[in-house]
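Fold description:
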Amino acid sequence: MDFRFQLCLQFLQLLTNCCVAEFAFQEEYYEGNPCLLDKGQKGVCKNITQCPEKLKETKQGLRGPNPNDRCGFSGSMEVVCCPLQHIDGKVGLRSADVACHQFENEIPISEGLVFHILGGDETVEGEFPFMAALGYHDKDRKAVINYNCGGSLISTQYILTAAHCIINVNGQVPVEARMGSVNLEISNEAVQRILIAEKYPHPKYKMNAHYYDIALIKLRFPVKLTATVKPVCLLTKSVEIADTRNASLISAGFGATSFDTERSLKLMKTPSLSLVSRFACDNMYTNVRKLPHGIDDTMLCGRDANVTRRSDACQGDSGGPLLLRKENTQSLVGVTSFGSSCGSSVPGVYMSVYPFLDWIEAQVWGDEQVFVYPGQLTS
């Protein structure tokens, strides 16, 4: 074999190995993963728009085309290794992550449960201890409470729901939240019914559009933490880049269970849903008056891949949770917003929690950065 040709082959092999190694590195690191900077400085992988230091370096031209601090990409957006903030030996963490650990929200999944709402399955007591049913005064009988929307308890005093559950053309406003039971007919000591003190729809929400359809509700007083009433963790990374291996994406609610029925008195859950790409979802929601800009990056689209079952969120499920369930934990990734029709091939649309984290944390836990000592959060 020609010596020069042999050298070329060796060079190509070396180049291939380098590319494979670089590709493997990028696939291992996602938003939220720990990483190391130069000189062993600890960091966390973040979207570059969420890392002021690296964003500033980029604008100043201080980062080359293949920087060492790159974790990978989220779509076309670079994910970088962002330095952790240290103050007197303390590490800055997201308020939502600290709250999650504080409540030790590792919800056990009972053996034998099937992830098989419309076309869904009944839930069991304690399976969704964060689930809230939002109660409204009946238009004709003021003493009667109708539970027309859902929500998720994310702290002892705040519920995350949809903005249209608070601001709507019917002028319906929730007056109470009911938690502690998967059956609305049951009234026992486990059930907690708490009046609503304040309502905070996202400031950019408008009734004539589906955008920013997310809201917070403050209860008049904190819930009592029990086995059936407990806050849920928020997923503090984009679900598109989260590790979803051996995970299920499910929604839950007290909505209709078939096309011709009223609200369900029992909490229902879908089987595992499949995420639909924003591009494909947008193509199925063309010419929708309330979507002048189409499906945007604050939305998640999901549907049942089983075409004969087509389990789906339905009327009355609005504001309820979209959950990422893995092993013995589940995290809140979305809020049920709108759809085309129950159980159709067109996916349901959920507000993604991740883009609204800053707004949620500022309202629920305050604007200050939360600091803990290294090792404090280890169990």
The first strand starts at residue 34 and ends at 36. The chain has a mean pLDDT of 76. The helical segments are 3-28, 52-59, 95-102, 278-284, 357-364. Residues 3-28 form the longest helix (26 residues).
